[in-house]
Design goal:
The structure holds 2 protein chains of 2 kinds. Chain A is α+β, with helices and mostly antiparallel strands. Chain A has 2 domains: 1-33; 37-193, Jelly Rolls (Sandwich). Chain A has one helix spanning 2-31, and strands spanning 37-38, 54-55, 64-67, 106-124, 133-139, 142-148, 156-173, 186-193. In chain A, strands 1, 2, 3, 4, 5, 6, 7 and 8 form an 8-stranded antiparallel beta sheet that branches. Chain A is elongated. Chain B is mostly helical. Chain B has 2 domains: 3-77 and 93-362, no CATH class; 371-456. Chain B has a 5-stranded mixed beta sheet, sandwiched between helices. Classes of the chains: A alpha+beta, B mainly alpha.
């Protein structure tokens, strides 16, 4: 009889206590998490020893994306920058970071294999003018070469990068999302090399 | 009843309730309402996995992140345990349906206050297998935790009224629980009206419980203010925007308007033939449980006054109505017989009849809403070559990103956007114009989930 009462009391305490502790730990783990947007490679890397330069930043060439965020409501998904369409029919097919939650937007195109990169071309939505970014190529996470955005309003920006061997091209933006110029909208990134 | 029998009966009711709740969770597929995904699971999923779709509420800041963070915490635990994708949505549903059993001890204690052991155990047993709760609780809706917090908050308030020695402490906890129910579901404020008036009234009788009640309420407000300050940049942003949108701009009228009697109509539909029993017993228990009854009546009147109506909004009213009903049963037993066993028999028959008739009413609801679409999304997400997915219907009428569990653009079907090579999988519903288009373009059928067909563009 006494044992049953004790068991009852302990059972309630254990259920409530374990639930409260797990809820708190889960909550703390959740608020300390902020995942980036990682996509998957869906194709093989292009063969080595290519005789001509190709666009390595394509899904069909095994590229994949790591973006700090995207405009979730309008589905301006980062994969649109490697779909091969430099001026797509709709303005949806561009990458736009999330204005509300992203303080330091970044977009990295990961190549399927270390490659020689000669040129990077960035296609912006010409309606928007923000070009405050640093473009870099890196190998194994270590930056090899960096250049700044041109500051001009051209829709098509070309960067002659001399990266002997790189597996990532990355854009790090410096923006004030609430300013009139605080609009980052990119249709496509081409990474020319072999 | 001896203490030993009390313990055995209580855990038996919980065990039976648990089995029935889990069985209902297992047999339910799809969703009850898009909010369960896009207001709670999807925002949490975006933070955990980095992709998803957010509705307009998150542009304006009408929602607060408190419940999202709570669900997100459990999703994080499930992720660490190896669950992923659709399981995160499903397991939050399981969490909720198990959590809903917490109303059982609250109903037991509240029932006892108004009709002794008979009313207490009737309320507890009915609440353990109450069909509307079985239907709604396997979903990550805000109504489920709000119902638990409301029921417990009101129970502690009522117990405190009869226990001057503990009233201050109970008033504080009651206000905290009721306040948190408002934080996660703003309409729960309707359930605070009667307790607040009661405490305020007794302040004039030099009862200090109101001060404890106010302190508990302030803690809840502080939780909301802090949550909004961290996420939206302004304390109480979501509450202000919610009030502005729904009441000042009357935006609630943009989302499913029903006539004022809609909630009564739903109650009649759900209770069905049991109304013959339910209504007289409710009337019999009404005066005895006048404080509790006033709360659920005010809530239903309040809900009826709002243009936008949904049956799930009245979930918190059900346990309270069961308490009134159980007090009516206890009263009937007192009139009919003096024998305790006969009174228990009357209560068991009446309670079982209510559960049976309500189960019949609830069985008419859709238990698999959009379930086949969710399965089709899951199928697409498993395809190693999937780079984009379009589907028939609107974006919020899908399972969201957890169900596809793959970071690719996913959108409702649009012919122009469909030309983008990324979109190589299409979930098309039979009979739609995109089904005709799929046949004309000779897309290849990959799988079928009832009337949804998965096509791949070659």
């Amino acid at each position: 009889m006494d044992n049953l009462e004790r068991l009852d009391a302990w059972l309630v305490r254990i259920i409530v206590g374990v639930y409260a502790v797990l809820s708190l730990l889960g909550f703390l783990a959740f608020v300390s998490t902020k995942a980036v947007s990682l996509t998957q490679a869906v194709a093989e890397a292009p063969p080595t020893g290519l005789e001509e330069d190709v666009n390595l930043a394509l899904l069909e060439n095994g590229a994949w994306i790591e973006a700090s965020s995207y405009a979730y409501h309008y589905i301006h998904h980062p994969l649109f920058v490697i779909d091969g369409l430099t001026s797509p029919p709709s303005t949806k097919e561009q990458w736009v970071p999330d204005k509300r939650s992203d303080e330091a937007p970044s977009l990295a195109v990961h190549l399927a294999r270390p490659s020689l990169i000669r040129e990077v071309v960035v296609y912006h939505d010409p309606r928007y003018t923000d070009r405050s970014y640093i473009l870099s190529c890196s190998l194994g996470g270590e930056a090899v070469t960096s250049v700044s955005g041109s500051g001009r309003r051209d829709a098509r920006e070309t960067f002659d990068l001399a990266c002997e061997s790189a597996d990532e091209v990355r854009l790090d933006f410096d923006w004030n999302p609430d300013s009139s110029g605080g609009h980052i909208r990119i249709y496509e990134i081409m990474v020319i090399g072999r | 009843m001896s203490r030993r029998n009390h313990i055995i009966l209580f855990w038996s009711i919980i065990a039976v309730g648990l089995v029935v709740h889990v069985a209902c969770w297992l047999t339910k597929t799809g969703m009850h309402y898009p909010d369960e995904i896009f207001q709670y699971v999807e925002p949490a999923y975006i933070r955990l996995e980095g992709y998803g779709w957010l509705p307009w509420e998150f542009s304006r800041g009408v929602r607060n992140w408190t419940l999202i963070a709570f669900y997100g915490g459990w999703m994080k635990i499930f992720l660490l345990l190896g669950a992923e994708g659709a399981w995160l949505h499903r397991l939050i549903g399981l969490h909720n349906t198990v959590l809903a059993l917490a109303i059982v001890p609250a109903a037991l204690r509240m029932g006892r206050l108004y009709g002794g052991e008979i009313a207490g155990w009737t309320a507890a047993a009915v609440c353990a297998v109450l069909p509307p709760v079985l239907f709604y609780s396997p979903h990550p809706l805000s109504e489920v935790p709000a119902m638990v917090l409301t029921t417990w908050g009101l129970t502690l308030w009522l117990e405190g009224r009869g226990d001057p020695a503990r009233e201050g402490r109970l008033a504080f906890i009651a206000a905290l629980l009721l306040g948190l129910s408002v934080v996660i579901r703003f309409f729960s404020a309707a359930f605070l009206i009667v307790p607040t008036i009661d405490y305020a009234f007794r302040l004039f009788q030099r009862n200090r419980a109101f001060l404890y009640y106010a302190a508990g309420g302030l803690v809840s407000i502080a939780v909301l203010a802090f949550s909004d300050w961290v996420t939206w940049g302004t304390p109480l942003h979501s509450a202000i925007e919610y009030f502005r949108y729904n009441l000042l701009e009357w935006g609630n009228a943009h989302h499913g308007v029903s006539p004022w009697w809609q909630y009564l109509d739903w109650m009649v539909e759900r209770i069905g033939w049991g109304l013959v029993l339910f209504l007289p017993l409710i009337l019999l228990g009404l005066w005895r449980t006048r404080l509790v009854s006033a709360i659920w009546i005010i809530a239903i009147v309040g809900l009826s006054a709002i243009a936008h109506k949904e049956e799930r909004f009245m979930l918190s009213c059900w346990p309270l109505m069961v308490v009134t009903f159980s007090a009516g049963i206890a009263r009937l037993g007192e009139v009919l017989t003096t024998a305790g066993r006969r009174r228990a028999l009357v209560a068991a028959v009446a309670g079982a009849a209510l559960v049976a008739s309500t189960a019949w009413g609830v069985s008419k609801l859709d238990w698999h809403w959009y379930g086949p679409l969710f399965e089709a999304q899951q199928y697409v997400g498993r395809q190693p070559d999937a780079t984009g997915c379009m589907f028939s219907g609107r974006i919020h009428l899908s399972g969201g990103s957890a169900w596809i569990n793959r970071n690719v653009p996913m959108d409702s079907y649009q012919a122009d956007l469909g030309r983008n090579p990324l979109f190589n999988y299409f979930i098309v519903k039979d009979g739609t114009h995109e089904a005709t288009r799929a046949r004309l373009r000779r897309w290849v059928e990959q799988a079928r989930f009832e009337d949804y067909v998965v096509y791949r563009r070659e």
